Amino acid sequence: MTLPDFNSVRKIWDDRKISGFVLLSLSLQILLTVCAPLRKRTSRMWIMSSIIWLAYMLADLVANFAIGLIASSQCGVLKPALSTEVVATLNAFVQSLGPTNKLRFPTLALFLIGIIKCSERTRALYLGSFDGLKNSVKEDGLKNSVKGENECRIDISHPPYQENNIGVVQCAYDLFERFSKVLIADLLYKSRDNICHMDSTSFFCRRSPEESFHIIAAELNFIYETLFTKLYVAHTKLGYFFRAMSFGTTSTALVCFSKFDKHDLDRFDVVITYSLICGAMALDSIALFMLIFSDWTVAFAAPKDVVQSNISWQSCWKTILVRYLDLKKPNLCSSNTTSSFLGWSRQILFGRCSETIYAFNLIEYALKKGAKWGSLFGLEDLLDKIKIINYGYSKPLSKDLWEFIFNDLREKKNNREGFFELWDAKGDWILRYNDRLRRYVFDHDYDENLLLWHIATELCYNTDKSNAGVDNRRREYSKTLSDYMFYLLFLQPTMMSSVTTIGQEAVLSDTCDAIAQIIFRDNSEPRLVLEHEEACKRILVARPSSIRDKYSAYLLFIARDLAEELTKLGDKKWDVMSQVWVDLLSYAATHCRPNSYAQLLSNGGELVAFVWLVMEHLEVGRK
Predict the structure, then answer these.
(1) 322-346 burial string, b = 16+ CB within 10 Å, else e?
(2) Which residues does UniProt call coiled coil (predicted)?
(3) CA 222, CA 229: separation in Å to the nearest integer?
């Protein structure tokens, strides 16, 4: 057996390493440009998330390493003075502008384009920061006060829903500019005079739940693209000029290189140069496509020119926009059907948000938690976190559930008592006339309330089969919201930190251990073979004496007592529980800071973000 010739491999590495890393850097940029927009719609697809995360990590690393190789090859040995990225880049650039380089002018032009792109990225990062948003809001307010612009660009009270989705996007943009951008900047109550005097409350009161969801989804998408993309910067006159200049300069460089005498150049280097220039043109083309077919293009178009135009080219452009916006329309599926593969693909490729409810169930987790063998290796905490993520599940947001939540909030808006009391209602607003149930809410903190009602809902759901076969949507609403709110409490602690107590994690862990002791009866039975329904029945008949640490299980037995009280209500218990869960969801929505929702938009957003924005527009739950 002959050994490989390492000298030839080393020679190939020495000759082609710079070209290889430059091509790898370009490939990573193309991958990020194409796949990064999918991040907010595929946050739970760990393969896609891992690819995007790895590409982000490698993009800067590979580019910096390639710059170091270029500088090192041109200087012999990279000196300490050239150790910084900027100096190394400038050194490599200056070396390429020697008198022997006949392509120095295209090189200089492409370097200028690189500076423009870096400046554009820096400006986008600043404008997407909270300080940048605050300054932008203050500047807009000053301009409006000087010009006397106290009215909206379009009349949101009569949007052209009947014709197409263009009016939805334009209305969402006006709400974003005059309301939600100010809200995210945390200046809502300090600069309310700077907000357009549009009656968003009466507007949403007159809209159907489905129409409202479409508008809120588009509005949240504007927030996301402002904070996490360059579209907010690109959709300016200067941004348009830079896009045209970038594409024109790259095309000119391609023409110049194609006419250049390349007989003395290495064939491989020629192929690499063509690949780099064509790759840069491909990036500009993709960016231009995303720029044209974005909500910002629709938002900046004059409503009458786009919606009511009869000119042939404008009519054609309007048709293209309408067809494209139809692809971005939210895919709310009915509760009694599953989403088709075509609808799922459309949502992944074109959707504005994930349209998914993530969920986590405490009893199911206790059933599958298993033995803590990881403690033998000091990996118990890490393995528990992996199991928690693995045992979570997701389901599409149904139209029926959204209608139930939206109609409940709208009714509270019309109810003066609900309007003022919802801010402090931790689930007890619907129970204000039921003292037997209200004490289970009134005597505990919010996170304990959520845990109590989560366990009680699960016990009732798995042991009450009296409503089987009939329309029991309230039962399903309660189950879905229960698992979703527990997911927020357990897996989104940063967002829920403003409504939870310090010892929340210890309480959850103790309650989970107590459930495991009851359902497995001190490990006398094999794990992972017990049915969910049987586990709930064991909890209902358990006694405190069966728990070694009585204090750790006190919430579990209070939740069991709550389930017994709810069972006495008969069929009405699901009406009560579903209303309680909407109250708990509303309380979380009104007490979390707006920047918490903004930070979650890159992962597809959450149902609670939709509820928060609807409540702000309806002015429900404001203190």
Answers:
(1) bebbeebbbbbbebeeebeeeebeb
(2) none
(3) 10
DSSP-assigned states of every residue in 546-577: G-SSTGGGHHHHHHHHHHHHHHTTGGGHHHHH
Q: Is 197 exposed, middle or buried (0-12, 13-18, 19+ CB in 10 A)?
A: exposed
Q: Is 395 helix (H, G, I), strand (E, B) or coil?
A: strand
pLDDT, one tens digit per residue, over 151-185 is 445 455 555 444 568 888 988 898 888 887 777 77
pLDDT tens, position by position, 351-376 = 888 888 888 888 888 887 654 544 44
User: What CA–CA distance (Å, rounded) separates 411 from 404?
Assistant: 11
Phi, psi of 328 (to 5 degrees): -90, 0
**Residue 76 Rama label (left phi>0; alpha psi -120 to 50; beta):** left
| Contact (Cβ atoms closer than 8 angstroms) between residue 213 and residue 402 | yes
pLDDT of res. 429: 63
Model-level pTM? 0.84
Token pair belonging to 340: 């088709």
How many Cα atoms are found within 13 Å in the side-chain-facing hemisphere of 363? 30
Q: Which helix (H) or strand (E) holds 358?
A: strand 356-359
User: Residue 485: pLDDT band by 50, 70, 90 thresholds?
Assistant: very high
Phi, psi angles (nearest 5°) of residue 334: -70, 155
- CA 309 to CA 312: how far, in whole Å? 8
Strand partners, 358: 394
